[in-house]
Each structure stands twice: as C-alpha cells, then as structure tokens.
Give the backbone structure.
Amino acid sequence: MRDFRGSTALITGASSGIGEELARLLARQGCRLVLTARRQDRLDALARELEKAGAEGVWVLAADLAVAGAAARLVEELDHRGLSIDVLVNNAGFGGSGPFLDTDLATEQEMVQLNVVAVMDLCKLLGRRMAARGAGHILNVASTAAFQPGPLMAVYYASKAFVLSFSEALAAELRDAGVVVSTLCPGPTQTEFVARADVGGTRLVNRVTRMASAPDVARAAFVGLSRGSRLIIPGVVNKLGVLSVRLMPRRWVIALVRRLQEKS
Ligand SMILES: NC(=O)c1ccc[n+]([C@@H]2O[C@H](COP(=O)([O-])OP(=O)(O)OC[C@H]3O[C@@H](n4cnc5c(N)ncnc54)[C@H](OP(=O)(O)O)[C@@H]3O)[C@@H](O)[C@H]2O)c1
C-alpha cells in the first residue's frame, strides 16, 4: 500500500460528491491538497474543515474546466504557487440525458470539454512532470457507463468510454516511467450528479440498482489508488454488470441499456 504522507494531490471536482470525499480521505492520510471546481465557497468550506481536522496544506484554486484552455491555466497557477503535483485525481464530470437530437448541443460540448479534454490536458501537462521525476499517481474517474454505448445518454457514455480507453493505454505507457494510472468506474452513486444528469426517474436508478454512497465509492477509490490498481470497480453488483457486458452480445447490451435509461 502506497503511503501518501507529504504528497500533494490535485483533485478536480472537489466541491461535492466523490471528489469531496476523496479529499477527506487523502487529507486524513497526511496528503497535501489542491482543491478545484467552480464553486469557490464550497471549496473554501471544505478547506477550512480539513485544516481544522489537522490537514497540513490545503489550497483552493477555483476553475471552470469546461472552458477551453482552463486546464493549462490551472497548471500555470500551480507553477506560480510553486506546487508540484504527485497525485492527480481527474474526477470533475457531469452527465446529461435525453434523445440525442433533442438535447442541448452547447451543454454536450461542455461535457466533452470537461469529461474528456480537461482530463487529457491535465494528464499530458502533469503526467510529463511526473514521468520526469520518475514517480506519480493518476486516478481518472470514468464510470460503469464506459463499458458499453448508452442510448439516451449517448454523449456521457461515450465520454466515459474515452476516459477508460485513454487511461488504460496511459497506464501501459507510463508504467516504466514510474507513474501509476488507475481508472475508477463507479456505478450509480447518490451525489449531485443524479439531479444534474436528470437520471432520477430512470429504470436504472429507480428499480435496478441500490445507489452507492459517495463515501463508499471514495473509499474503494482510495484503496485502489493506494494499491496501484489499474481498474477500480466499486461494489459486487457493478463488477458483475461489467462482466455480463463482456459476455452478452453487444446488440442485447445496447437494447438493455436503452431500457434502463428510459424513465419508468
Ligand atoms: N454519481 C454517479 O452516479 C456517477 C457514476 C459514475 C461516474 N460518476 C463520475 O464521478 C465523477 C464525480 O461525480 P459525482 O458523482 O461526485 O457528482 P457531483 O457531486 O455532481 O460532483 C461533480 C464535481 O465536478 C465539478 N464540476 C462540474 N462541472 C465543472 C466544471 N465545468 N469545471 C470544474 N468542475 C466542475 C463539480 O463542482 P462545481 O459544480 O463546483 O464546479 C463537482 O465538484 C464524475 O466524473 C462523474 O461522471 C458519477
């Protein structure tokens, strides 16, 4: 198990849900934290809480990572403050649902910018430095949605398929440089994601799964990160779901996902 004491972690999407819980866990292990998301007030409140609990260094850098070039500006700000990142957690992301021709294009462009481009940018900019130092950890948050196409959530599922494919490739490329890349694939989790993606009334959320809690998912992520696991799928039901996708004909899987993504 890796000891994160004295390391510095950058967590995107630290203002709520899984990212916020991961920040608490890493702080408890003695990790210094750089917290980012759009809502500065939420990040400031978390920073105060962590410092009160004894965290050594916590920095808040608010940023909208759905804006082109924002990841590069964030890295410039890290440099400006002399912060070197040992652990990069690409967690910020959001989803959206509805028939593709009816959903809002600008929102989907933002989704791709945040879920895909910002993840790629931060991996490139900070991954290069980690490789030059011969050490580092990257945790990219994908989803169980990454394993198959998702009718009625087409762009979100595709964005997470990118994160999974990209991260697994990166893990193989960076292993010899001493950089460990892990991919977290949570299933449905009770966070603000559910309301923003408007998936509350779907069969998947209403009937099929018991939603995981953000602290449980963050704990699984932390254990996987500490062990250097390549793929982290929290929960037995999610593991079985991913396995069944590999065994079932693709056509059946897509039809099933469409049914699950419909409102019940
Ligand atoms: N919840 C689920 O069912 C589920 C399942 C599988 C995977 N995931 C993935 O888990 C990750 C974390 O989501 P969550 O469930 O914890 O949801 P959440 O509570 O909504 O957290 C999302 C985080 O992303 C940040 N964010 C959103 N838009 C942003 C932007 N434009 N720029 C910078 N930060 C932004 C949010 O902060 P601000 O609003 O303050 O910017 C928030 O901190 C996401 O990548 C999501 O796709 C979630």
